[in-house]
Amino acid sequence: MALLAEDLLLLLLDDRRGSTVVDSTSVDYALAGSLLLELALAGRIDVAGEGSSVKKGRLYALDRDPVDDPLLDKVLSRIAVEQRKPESWVPKLAKGLRSDLLRRVEDAGAVRRQDDKVLGVFPRHRFPQADGSGEAAVVEELRRALEGQEPTQRAAALLALLSAVDAVHKVVPGVDKKQARKRAKAISEDVWAASAVASAVRAVSAAVAGAVTASTTAAVISST
């Protein structure tokens, strides 16, 4: 099964143009958040609460056993020795992550790399769709969830991350933007309400949204 991060990356790439459907920073932070959610869903990490030996609000390792994926295992090993809040981990994990994931989905045959130059000078790399069967299945699962079907935890996690970067309507064609936002938010809250990983999902989703907002604000300030 593909990683959440791989599914998320394919969703956030325009199938024809091969560029991202939201800004690069939002993509990178959402991908970083997806690694944390994957580890939370696997029961490997959680957010410290009251009475924990770890400082409240910080991610820590529940189980240090490898999950048999080099990317996830690397993140898990870092969290095992360095407890930080999700909002600190998200920008740290985002560095270089998209390139690693692009290589993985390209090797899997889901995208093909196209290199060219903007204005004949600036190098540009794009990754249009090569085999859309896997992505199509994910999109259909998200669509069913948005239309009222009980979502899987993976679908709910993807919707939480897509909501954090306001991209639900951009990756599920034909949905009403306002209704999709509302339904995705409800799913993000309801599915995890009684889950053991509820605190981690909420914290990571909030961290992604906060990091995106902060970067956008900084960009606006620097341009004025």
TrEMBL record:
InterPro entries: GPP34-like, GPP34-like_sf
Pfam families: GPP34
Gene3D superfamilies: yeast vps74-n-term truncation variant domain like (1.10.3630.10)
Biological processes, Gene Ontology terms: Golgi organization; Golgi to plasma membrane protein transport; Golgi vesicle budding; retrograde vesicle-mediated transport, Golgi to endoplasmic reticulum
Topology of this chain in the membrane: Peripheral membrane protein
Protein name: Golgi phosphoprotein 3 GPP34
Keyword Membrane tagged: yes
Keyword set, alphabetical order: Golgi apparatus, Lipid-binding, Membrane
Transmembrane segments annotated in the record for this chain: none
An example Gene Ontology CC term for this record: cytosol
Entry's Gene Ontology molecular function annotations: phosphatidylinositol-4-phosphate binding
